[in-house]
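Problem statement: downstream parser choked on a complex file, so we are re-checking the raw output for the 3-methyl-2-oxobutanoic acid run. The parser issue turned out to be on our end (a line-ending mismatch), but while we're here, posting the original submission so the record is complete.
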Amino acid sequence: MRINQTTLHKMAQDGEKITMLTCYDASFAAVLDAAGVDTLLIGDSLGMVLQGHDSTLPVTLTDVIYHTACVARGSKRAWIIADMPFGTFQTGPADAFRNAAQLMAAGAQMVKVEGGETMVETIRFLTARGIPVCGHLGLTPQSVNMLGGYRIQGKTDFQAKQLIAEAKMLEEAGAGMLVLELIPAALSRQVTAALRIPTIGIGAGVDCSGQVLVLHDMLDVYPGKKARFVKNFLTGAGSVQGAVEAYVREVKAKTFPAAEHSY
Ligand code: KIV
């Protein structure tokens, strides 16, 4: 049976860490399912790790629909989340609904949108109409040109308070999950304690409700620069499935991320 949002919320309440990896095709979806990954994210990171772009900005809705359909065909167990690409949800709730509906039709069970207060109305609109939404705060890669690079967010008191306030706004608007990217571990601990919905960290320390990594990073096949929060799980694992099982084991045991992967 497929994991659903209720299962994930219960896991978070019970203190069981949620595992998430990005996934873009049917074969990897089957491997990740067999290794026990709870949620698969068709991330717009595909623009970098599959298409070779230097940002996620060129990714289109058609790209994510295609990869979502591939993943959905290969997976039977995990909860499937599709990223809404840049330009497909920022113009308002009605546009966001039209585009999110296509991702759901392709096999997603939830869509992810980057952004804080400006996303409140859209999240309320989508969730009221049957589309579960995952928020994304901290480093939001689609805003890389506003943020001045891929750098840690929420370092000042002001930014930290703003991030906590926006996390609460997204939850109140109906978001069912929240990705926290590249923020201090102490801040993600505070955000997680302030919310009822699960938080999923990437470069955000061990105290989130769960963790996500980009598949090509944890298998060490992406040729680009490696962030401090990335761990190569393939070394010594013997196989891709072994690497993914090691990731699941370490996230569930709270041994990944360690201090050396956190800020
Ligand atoms: O696109 C992606 O892969 C993501 C994760 C890094 C959370 O948004």
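For whoever reads this later: The beta strands are 18-22, 39-42, 79-83, 110-112, 133-138, 177-181, 199-202, 210-213.
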